[in-house]
Q: What sequence folds into this?
């Protein structure tokens, strides 16, 4: 399946009802004779009140693909979906909000129900029957909540907050970008609260309801579209596949899910951030929560329930838990072996009825409540993995279970668990006695780390277009003419001090540093001029014209790469050969538009030690023929 | 001397810490679940907040009472709700927590108001276990219409439609489905047939939370019914419906006539109606067939080209049989070919645009 599809989408249509119809897409591919049930029905993104009632649909129905926001207030009721589709064309697909998906039947289709990010949907009484989805890797999913939002996510620490706001001055969001997203406080003050974002400015999120405890500079938060407060009720899965709440799920409810020898139900949270060997946080947006979800009264025959955090490992950068406060209550699980699909990758944890935790290292799962469940006819009843912290196993009942509880978690609390097939002197009963796990919780404390500016901010010299977009945002470009005068002289003295350092380096190493034009990571890359010169004085490498966000890169000057390794004495025309220049001037678009730089020019350090202000390039270059001319010139 | 100074500093530091701790009252930021779950012997709740004391924390809960008569209780709706009591009143109960950390308490909670107490005093009260309505299906409804409400822990009765001068008690409709547990998430009710038109607010109360338990579900405007649209039979516009002739012109003429009349129903008698290009249905027009079993709208054209162009390529597949605009409908028809919806009301054709759709990575 290609990663990108072209798809004709319409605008934001509203108030459309399709009732009692039979919709049939193209029946077969004329050349291969394969069935080609495609979009029998498609509502464009942002569609409102599109109702699909009691139809017979041969093909798929899709809502809102294209991403201007979820379809709102759709009603998809009592439809029957038939027929094959190409590979994995999802049968019922969309990002919805406030939508009712009720009493639909999917039969004889390899497609599936896939839900994107949205809130307050109700998915109930649907049935999926006997779909053969092949043996490819995601074929095992039939109800899927497709989280994993990374691109539009910020996971960071606030710098402040008020009754209805959260402020992070490190950010530079586009105003309105996070509207309708969800903000969740994952650690620090205000921990445990989530809110809908009503509006956002460059640095502040305004939430729809006031916080009960306002965040402050200790609050670690996440903001992104999430799958929030949706409910699944009495759906049937009669396939060899599973129901998967896959990442970014907050406060959803799964009740009375019926799973008949299928592949079970799972809930995924993940924190794939890490602290590298230099103590710098990486992959900060790779935090996908699974918080406050409930699995209640589900009847699962031959299958297991799994709440995992595959991304939790020893070096997570974030303090918060990816899985927190999930409930597994009053479910009935029998014979959870679940392998009639014949897939050859077998998760070792799947043989237990209820599995809490997963992954490696420090805890990814905390405060899972597993209570009043009934587990029967299996080897292991409840497995608590070593990444699970504070799991509460309360009043569960086990019938013909060899090992009722396998507890490797930290701080697990057992209370009132019992066997209904009690046999005298059963050694396994000791495992069920009321107790608290002895394992030390302290070892799960995360390590301290610092932010990597190159990761926090968009890339600079790697992508000229990104640069253009970035400087078009006023927050980056604050120099006015008067301030610029003062800053220009400050910048020039910086360059002069750098020349002294370069001369020193040249004398010591018999050549100028072998630095890159602009390094990938200015603070750490081996080819960074700043690293090579070994000078810790930050202000010397940053230009005062640049905004604090650009200064945080730690290096605001571009290096003439042609001179790397050459001796200063060998340069033929030192007065005309440049060594360093302002990087804001290294793209003509920035300077032409008067946003940045010293009075629309740049300071340049020449090989004879002189520093001059100049505008060395064509001002019309960007909009005419040579958008990268200056950059190209500078690099060559 | 140095040692003494160090000791003094250390003591001052400890004193400072103690002072900080003394000033910090507990605060509750969230209680989960915060809606009535509906099962007895509730599983423990998770309370998050600040300044809980693992060594000594008390949790108190209270169930305020509401008048037994709904009509009396409704009186409360117009009046300002008093503050919740700052401390547990008489009748409140102390609950033994299962586990206390600095920011997290696990405790089985009854009632609908909770306080946490440490040596520094009581937290502010926190209201929970009250109905949590999330949306109402309609913004406007006619008298007698069915409206549904989605939320968590919704009551089966005790719904109130209230305007400035009128209070209505709509009848809820319990679905006849065989449920093992009550579904407390979707409630249907009928707008009273004799309801006066006007703007109303919809409230519910699930009997928890006393006077504080009223929750507003949304606004609803009751409006006069719209007149039914006129019928336009495609045969009268020259459609054959024989599965051989191209009926596109006739169907378009019927649709145009309906549009000109300010909206209406374009009716298709039994038969197979062919079209060689997309039928655009403008705002206010509905297409209605006799039955989906005998009334077919069939798109035709170069099927081979269409199949190849579909889906994977940037060409818009020329196979949409019907494109529906705002305020339109499709009823009792079989539509063959491929259809999708999505054009806006103003544009006749939806512009194909490039959009990216990322499939999740297979490798996890």
A:
């Amino acid at each position: 399946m290609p990663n990108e599809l072209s798809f004709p989408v319409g605008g934001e249509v509203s108030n459309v009802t399709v009732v009692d119809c039979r919709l049939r897409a193209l029946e077969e591919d004329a050349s291969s004779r394969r069935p080609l049930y495609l979009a029998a029905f498609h509502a464009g993104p942002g569609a409102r009140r599109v109702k699909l009632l009691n139809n017979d649909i041969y093909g798929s129905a899709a809502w809102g693909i294209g991403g201007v926001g979820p379809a709102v207030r759709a009603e998809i009721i009592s439809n029957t979906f038939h027929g094959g589709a190409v590979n994995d064309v999802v049968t019922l697909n969309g990002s919805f909000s406030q939508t009712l998906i009720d009493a639909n039947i999917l039969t004889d289709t390899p497609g599936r129900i896939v839900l994107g990010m949205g809130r307050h949907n109700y998915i109930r009484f649907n049935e999926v029957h006997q779909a053969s989805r092949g043996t490819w890797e995601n074929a095992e999913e039939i109800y899927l909540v497709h989280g994993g939002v990374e691109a539009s996510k910020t996971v960071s620490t606030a710098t402040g907050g008020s009754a209805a706001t959260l402020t992070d001055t490190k950010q530079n969001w586009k105003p309105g970008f996070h509207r309708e997203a969800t903000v969740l406080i994952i650690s620090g003050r205000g921990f445990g609260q989530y809110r809908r974002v009503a509006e956002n400015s460059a640095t502040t999120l305004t939430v729809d309801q006031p916080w009960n405890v306002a965040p402050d500079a200790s609050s670690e938060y996440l903001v992104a579209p999430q799958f929030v407060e949706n409910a699944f009720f009495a759906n049937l899965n009669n396939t060899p596949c599973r129901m998967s709440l896959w990442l970014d799920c907050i406060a959803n409810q799964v009740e009375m899910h019926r799973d008949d020898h299928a592949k079970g139900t799972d809930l995924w949270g993940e924190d794939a951030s890490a602290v590298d060997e230099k103590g710098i946080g990486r992959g900060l947006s790779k935090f996908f929560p699974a918080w406050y979800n409930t699995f209640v009264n589900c009847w699962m025959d031959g299958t297991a329930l799994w709440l995992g955090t595959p991304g939790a490992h020893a070096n997570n950068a974030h303090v918060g838990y990816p899985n927190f406060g999930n409930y597994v209550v009053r479910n009935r699980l029998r014979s959870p072996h679940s392998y009639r699909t014949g897939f050859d990758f077998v998760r070792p944890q799947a043989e237990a009825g209820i599995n809490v935790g997963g992954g490696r290292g420090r805890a990814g799962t905390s405060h899972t409540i597993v209570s009043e469940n009934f587990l029967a006819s299996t080897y292991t009843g409840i497995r608590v993995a070593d990444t699970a912290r504070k799991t509460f196993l309360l009043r569960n009942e086990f019938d013909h279970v060899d090992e009722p509880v396998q507890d490797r978690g930290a701080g697990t609390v057992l209370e009132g668990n019992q066997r209904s097939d009690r046999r005298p002197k059963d050694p396994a009963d000791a495992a069920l006695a009321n107790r608290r796990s002895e394992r030390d919780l302290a070892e799960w404390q995360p390590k301290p780390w610092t932010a990597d500016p190159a990761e926090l901010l968009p890339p600079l010299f790697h992508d000229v277009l990104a640069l253009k977009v970035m400087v078009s945002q006023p927050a980056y470009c604050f120099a006015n003419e008067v301030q610029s005068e003062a800053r220009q002289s400050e910048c020039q003295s910086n360059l002069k001090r750098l020349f002294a350092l370069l001369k020193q380096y040249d004398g010591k190493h018999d050549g100028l540093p072998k630095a890159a034009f602009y390094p990938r990571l200015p603070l750490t890359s081996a080819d960074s001029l700043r690293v090579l010169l070994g000078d810790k004085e930050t202000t010397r490498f940053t230009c005062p014209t640049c905004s604090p966000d650009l200064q945080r890169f730690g290096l605001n000057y571009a290096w003439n790469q042609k001179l790397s390794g050459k001796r200063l004495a060998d340069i033929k025309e030192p007065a005309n050969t440049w060594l360093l220049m302002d990087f804001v001037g290294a793209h003509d678009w920035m300077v032409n538009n008067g946003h940045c730089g010293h009075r629309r020019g740049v300071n340049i350090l020449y090989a004879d030690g002189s520093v001059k202000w100049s505008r060395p390039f064509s001002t019309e270059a960007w909009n005419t023929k040579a958008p990268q001319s200056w950059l190209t010139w500078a690099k060559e | 001397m140095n040692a003494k100074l160090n000791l003094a500093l250390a003591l001052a530091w400890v004193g400072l810490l103690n002072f900080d701790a003394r000033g910090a009252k507990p605060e509750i930021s969230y209680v989960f679940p915060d809606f009535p779950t509906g099962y007895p012997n509730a599983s423990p709740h998770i309370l998050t907040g600040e300044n809980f004391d693992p060594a000594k924390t008390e949790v108190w809960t209270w169930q305020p009472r509401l008048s037994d008569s709904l009509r009396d209780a409704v009186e409360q709706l117009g009046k300002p709700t008093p503050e919740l009591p700052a401390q547990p009143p008489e009748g409140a109960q102390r609950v033994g927590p299962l586990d206390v950390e600095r920011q997290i308490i696990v405790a089985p909670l009854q009632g609908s108001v909770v306080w946490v107490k440490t040596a520094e005093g009581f937290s502010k009260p926190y209201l929970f276990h009250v109905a949590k309505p999330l949306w109402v299906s309609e913004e406007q409804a006619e008298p007698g219409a069915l409206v549904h409400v989605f939320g968590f822990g919704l009551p089966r009765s005790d719904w109130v439609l209230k305007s400035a001068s009128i209070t209505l008690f709509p009848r809820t409709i319990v679905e006849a489905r065989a449920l093992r547990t009550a579904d407390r998430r979707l409630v249907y009710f009928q707008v009273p047939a004799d309801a006066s038109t006007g703007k109303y607010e919809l409230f519910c109360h699930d009997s928890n939370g006393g006077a504080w338990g009223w929750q507003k579900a949304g606004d609803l405007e009751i409006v006069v019914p719209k007149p039914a649209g006129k019928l336009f039979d495609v045969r009268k516009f020259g459609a054959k419906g024989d599965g051989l002739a191209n009926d596109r012109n006739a169907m378009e003429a019927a649709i145009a006539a309906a549009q000109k009349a300010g909206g209406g129903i374009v009716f298709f008698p039994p038969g197979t109606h062919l079209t060689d290009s997309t039928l655009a249905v403008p705002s206010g027009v509905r297409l209605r067939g006799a039955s989906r079993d005998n009334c077919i709208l069939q798109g035709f054209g170069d099927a081979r080209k269409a199949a190849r162009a579909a889906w994977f390529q940037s060409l818009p597949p020329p196979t949409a049989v019907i494109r529906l605009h705002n305020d339109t409908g499709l009823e009792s028809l079989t539509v063959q070919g491929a259809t999708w919806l999505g054009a806006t009301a103003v544009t006749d054709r939806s512009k194909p645009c490039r959009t990216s759709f990322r499939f999740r990575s297979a490798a996890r």
